[in-house]
Design goal:
The structure holds three protein chains of three kinds. By secondary structure, chain A is mostly helical. Helix content of chain A is about 80%, strand content about 0%. In chain B, about 80% of the residues lie in helices and about 0% in strands. Chain B is globular, with a radius of gyration of 23 Å. The chains are: A mainly alpha, B mainly alpha, C alpha/beta.
Chain lengths: ~250, ~260, ~260
């Protein structure tokens, strides 16, 4: 039973790929390549050493932008979530900035950082900062009152309270928020690279098209983006599964 | 929940105003002190907004962006909800299609632009396609999640009253899953708003996104750039706000834990 | 233990519900888990029967099998002579909690099974049952505004509105506080005496069984078999301090094996 279940999605993918290949073969000379063409494109990239280089470039920017955003937004968000007045002050401003697509920041990013890595990292930072801030604030709100009262009851000092009650209590929610925001970061880096840098997977897509209509490379790039994004997501999910973080699922 | 006394009602308006004023002051003085010739001060931006508002172009741009979102998001809702309900109801179908969805989801809609342009050419339809893509996945995921978390007791009760499968889906499963579906739709709307701006910066020549990039390209009008950004933010916030109002309707409110 | 012949109602008229050699075996990770074994039970029309037994013995499983939510592994359940193959509006199950639909108002819930009626008939029926369960004034309220007891009353109203032959109740008052429970028992009896349906009621509360039932079916622990069927020959309203009541209660406690002093 279980084997058949695992087989079904594989069969679906195989069927879709087959249909794609047939559709392309029926239209020779059509711009879009078939799966075989895309595979060829991937091999091409590997042979030129570009695949690894671009993947590393994109991951590098994501890591920096995401990490910076996390280091600033999470402590700030936790503090704001705790102090009601702080949150009241900041929340409306955050609500206005959040719906502004990171890409809309491009002119400002280029103005401040010029064209290049820093601009891209800044864009990722902006794209991650506001969601993480909100996640942290919400995580504090959702701490069950019983835990806070118990912490007070046992007479914990403020720093002990933070490390022994607050921090463990918010971790599960923070992890979920981090995973979702990492997905956002991955979307932003690709878009940012299409506009403002000269390496990376996003750049690959734009460049492959502009410099010769190499659509096989364009789609190869998309496939790789999808795969790495999926791997990042799975990686974060496995973090969430670590036992000591899973307490939230065991509470009734 | 903190060590200070409970905040009063008026403070809800007081503190944001203070913070906003501080931010504006900081902004203004950093422009003055660094003597930058390019980056706008708050006053510049204010004048910029007035300028845009008086020109017909702004309203046309806002209309274009909203229209694209409406169509793209609307399509995602109309296609995504029935599809998502079916996947949620039919675990075999879900299990078969889910890996494909998980593979496609991390691909930024912006990365689809070359493909979209091939299929739709440069313009409206490409943008709508991208918005549709970006909105579809959160809705699908929310539907599947909503359906599978409908308590079996509701399904049993529905069957007990003699409902056919189709009636069961419409009268029990869908209402029971609706709170989660609404959350997914709200998130999808937020994404749609982000995607439309991005798409307009790259693949079309009207709309708020285009306004941002055009203001810079044709004359380094950073005051208009920032003005456009603020307008984008405010409209996005308004969309989110309206949607949250939907979540407060009584026949859906039961599904939200902190119904406040 | 085999039930004695004397406690089976030997009537000429066919029983409303008959369970014959009913058995249910669950499959837990490849292991066969017998839950019910050779249940034989007749329930007459308009009878009030209680199923009691220790926690986890399978009372709810028996109820689910009789209501058609579970297919028996062996034996059968017949209602009005027909074999039960699935859930049916002629026999409605009332759950312990969270059974009402939270997205519908009180009226919406009660009218849930009434879509085949005309608008006028539906409104009339709904109004009647709102009155029956004493929820007047709450017709347009949502379940989130109702207390636990009121929600259970709503479930009963919803069930009665479709005119079922049999009402199955699965520990319906188990999630309520003890004062509300007593009040609800009175309400249920009042409704039963006017509406006169067959009621099969699962409970782990011995007093509840003796106060409500015409007959009490005692189930052994898993795999459950019928240990004893006790007839409560007291007329309603029952005086719960009378010697006969205490006698019956003691008998029941003895059957379950709980007759001792704390």
């Amino acid at each position: 039973m279980k084997f058949i279940e695992r087989l079904r999605p594989v069969l679906l993918v195989a069927a879709l790929v087959a249909i794609w290949e047939i559709a392309v073969d029926l239209h020779p000379g059509y711009i879009l390549p078939g799966p075989i063409g895309v595979a060829g494109g991937i091999i091409d990239l590997i042979q030129h050493g570009l695949l690894l280089k671009y993947v590393v470039a994109s991951l590098f920017r994501v890591t920096w932008g995401f990490a910076l955003a996390a280091f600033v937004a999470i402590p700030l968000g936790l503090a704001l979530g705790w102090y009601r007045r702080g949150e009241m002050a900041v929340s409306p401003l955050v609500q206005i900035f959040r719906p502004i697509s990171p890409l809309a920041w491009i002119p400002i990013a280029i103005l401040w950082f010029g064209v290049g890595d820093l601009a891209a990292i800044f864009l990722i930072f902006v794209g991650c900062f506001f969601p993480l801030l909100l996640t942290a604030m919400n995580a504090v709100h959702n701490i069950p009152a019983v835990y806070i009262n118990a912490g007070r009851n046992f007479g914990l000092s403020p720093s002990a309270f933070v490390t022994r009650v607050l921090y463990p209590a918010v971790i599960p929610q923070l992890l979920v928020g981090l995973r979702i925001t990492l997905g956002v970061a991955w979307l932003v880096v690709v878009a940012a690279e299409m506009i403002s840098v000269s390496s990376g997977l996003g750049f690959l897509i734009v460049d492959a098209r502009n410099a010769g209509n190499r659509y096989d490379l364009v789609i190869a790039g998309m496939v790789i983006i999808g795969l790495i994004g999926l791997l990042l997501d799975l990686g974060m999910r496995s973090l969430e599964q670590i036992k000591s973080f899973r307490w939230i699922n065991s509470e009734g | 929940m903190n060590s200070l006394a409970h905040p009063r009602a008026w403070e809800r308006y007081f503190w944001p105003v203070v913070a906003g004023a501080l931010l504006l002051a900081l902004w203004h003085y950093s422009v003055v002190w660094t003597g930058t010739k390019v980056f706008p001060s708050p006053l510049n931006v204010e004048k910029g907004i007035a300028e845009l508002a008086s020109k017909h172009v702004l309203w046309a741009d806002i209309g274009d962006s909203l229209r694209r979102v409406a169509i793209g998001f609307g399509l995602a809702v109309v296609i995504g909800i029935p599809l998502g309900l079916w996947f949620g109801w039919n675990p075999a179908a879900n299990q078969t299609v889910n890996p494909v969805i998980q593979l496609l989801r991390p691909i930024s809609p912006i990365a689809w632009i070359p493909v979209a342009i091939i299929f739709f050419g440069v313009g409206d339809h490409a943008a709508i396609f991208l918005i549709f893509l970006g909105s579809l996945f959160p809705i699908l995921v929310a539907c599947v999640s909503g359906v599978s978390s409908v308590p079996p007791i509701f399904r049993d009760a529905g069957r007990n009253f003699g409902l056919s499968t189709r009636q069961l889906l419409a009268r029990v499963v869908f209402p029971a899953a609706l709170p989660q579906i609404l959350i997914g739709a709200r998130i999808a709307l937020g994404i749609a708003w982000l995607v439309v701006v991005a798409a307009e910066m790259i693949a079309v020549d009207s709309g708020l996104g285009y306004l941002v990039i055009d203001s810079r390209n044709s004359g380094k009008r950073y005051d208009l750039v920032v003005a456009a950004m603020l307008i984008i933010g405010i409209i996005g916030l308004a969309l989110d706000f309206c949607f949250r109002k939907l979540e407060r309707i009584k026949s859906v409110r039961w599904g939200f834990r902190n119904a406040s | 233990m085999v039930q004695t012949e004397a406690t089976i109602r030997g009537n000429n008229s066919a029983p409303k519900l008959r369970a014959e050699h009913l058995g249910v075996v669950f499959d837990r990770d490849g292991q066969a888990l017998p839950v019910l074994e050779d249940i034989n039970l007749d329930v007459e029309d308009s009878e009030f029967v209680c199923l009691v037994g220790p926690s986890g013995c399978g009372k709810s499983t028996l109820l689910n099998a009789m209501a058609g939510f579970l297919s028996p592994t062996s034996g059968s359940v017949r209602i009005d002579g027909e074999i039960v193959t699935g859930p049916d509006p002629r026999r409605i199950l009332v759950f312990q909690e969270r059974g009402v639909f939270p997205w519908l108002t009180v009226e919406g819930n009660i009218g849930f099974g009434l879509s085949k009626l005309t608008h006028a008939e539906r409104s009339q029926r709904i109004a009647h049952y709102v009155k029956t369960v004493r929820l007047e004034g709450f017709e347009n309220s949502y379940p989130s505004d109702l207390s636990g007891g009121m929600k259970q009353r709503l479930q009963v109203a919803r069930a009665l509105a479709v005119n079922p032959d049999i009402l199955f109740l699965d520990e319906p008052f188990g999630a309520l506080d003890s004062i509300t429970r007593v009040i609800m028992r009175g309400e249920l009896l009042r409704i039963w005496q006017t509406e006169r349906r067959t009621i099969i009621f699962v409970t782990h509360d011995i007093d509840e069984a003796v106060q409500l039932a015409d007959r009490v079916v005692v189930l052994s622990s898993r795999p459950a078999q019928i240990k004893e069927v006790l007839t409560i020959d007291m007329a309603h309203p029952r005086n719960i301090s009378s010697p006969r009541y205490l006698e019956l209660r003691d008998e029941l406690l003895k059957q379950i094996g709980l007759a001792y002093e704390i």
